[in-house]
Amino acid sequence: DKVLPELIEPYELRAAKLREFLEDVKPSLCYDIVPLADPFGPSVTDPDLQCLVVSEETHRGGEAVNKKRLENGLPELALYEIQLMKDPEHSQNEEEKISSSSLRQRLLGTLLQPPRRDPALPLRPYVIGLTGGTGSGKTSMAKFLGQLGAFVIDADQLGHAVYAPGGPAYEPVVAAFGAEILNKDGTINRKVLGAKVFGNQEQLKRLTDIVWPKIAQMVKEKVREADAQGKAVCVLDAAVLLE
């Protein structure tokens, strides 16, 4: 959830809140608030810094800062460790401490803006792209949305069907990569094919240039099928949707 920009407040707003906090704590305090462009920021380059406030879980980060400072010819910082406050209202799947990650997690599922009408697209079905890495919960979410009445398109299933004998990518893939990728029964051996493209960007692109347009076409056919069934919402579960 940390990579979703919609769930992260703008820097100007965060800086303003911090400034308000510092002025409440001690109006005479002198301070600089700077954006961090990397994990270390000015902590490894500023010769005037003397102390770094860390928590138990960021203590190792403080040690990494001091290692970098020594490499840069700067004196080590004193590491002052503070205890983190616990959130009495945290749920079972949230962090125990008061955390912005928990706040962002609570925002997940919130409609941040109404769906935008695109005149080039039909009103129905409304197609939702569901993407993310292995273990991110795509399958569970797709199942949940399916139970609510959405038409679910599983790109993994289409990915298997596209390679099957008679499938749209079968003949082009065999022509491109040779008969050695075939099993005795004529099906494509995905492990042998995978070994041919693994670590080879050129060969991988050659394969995806064949397969992905075919899968995209199959997806469009499935969307038309959802429309024919009168479904209002269509969910496309695809790990490489953005690619």
TrEMBL record:
Gene3D superfamilies for the chain: HUPs, P-loop containing nucleotide triphosphate hydrolases
Keyword ATP-binding (UniProt): yes
Alphabetical UniProt keywords: ATP-binding, Nucleotide-binding
GO terms under biological process: coenzyme A biosynthetic process
InterPro entries referenced in this protein's UniProt entry, alphabetically: Depp_CoAkinase, P-loop_NTPase, Rossmann-like_a/b/a_fold
Keyword Transcription regulation: no
GO MF annotations in UniProt: ATP binding; dephospho-CoA kinase activity
Protein's name in the database: COASY synthase
